[in-house]
Amino acid sequence: MDITTIYWIVLGVMGLGVIGAIIPGLPGSSIILVAILGWSIATSFAGIGLPMIFIFIVLILSAGVEYLALYFGAKQAGGSKWCQYGAFIGMAVGFFGLLPALPIGGPLIGVLVGAVVGAFIGEYLYRSNLESEARIQQAFKASAGIVIASIIGNIIEALLAAVAVAIFVYSTWSFVFPPTLS
């Protein structure tokens, strides 16, 4: 297989990684890192330098953005740690719970619904000292904060993933398509 074909395959996988960064619970940054590793192995690590190191740093940062967004979203909405724990547990239960029932799309739906339901339940349990209506209101507010923060976090993560892909293309394009002298 020639280097140009490998390059386009790597870019296609990276495109899937950027899409994966947008969708909650999918490992977009990891997919891009695997694509870069594949490219590095295919080219015997030629051209691995400062731009690639910068890409790794950006992708590692983007992996933590979603979790930080959930944390700050819950805090801004007045949610407790129980709300955050509930969201994480709900994501996991939703992912694995809907995987057998709906193999295509089920895990994605499970992650989204699970985070909201888990955050609501966690906050509802934490606020046991409140009246029933105030308790439901606070739990709803906290779970809405989780949803909004998750969306913002995914947008930031996707932007960082796109920046990483752009840096990769910028630093490797001339290796695959050397400039021709006219």
TrEMBL record:
The lineage of its organism: Bacteria, Bacillati, Cyanobacteriota, Cyanophyceae, Pleurocapsales. It comes from the Bacteria. Keywords: Membrane, Transmembrane, Transmembrane helix. Pfam families: DUF456 (PF04306). This is DUF456 family protein. The chain crosses the membrane at residues 6-23, 54-73, 85-102, 108-126, 146-173.
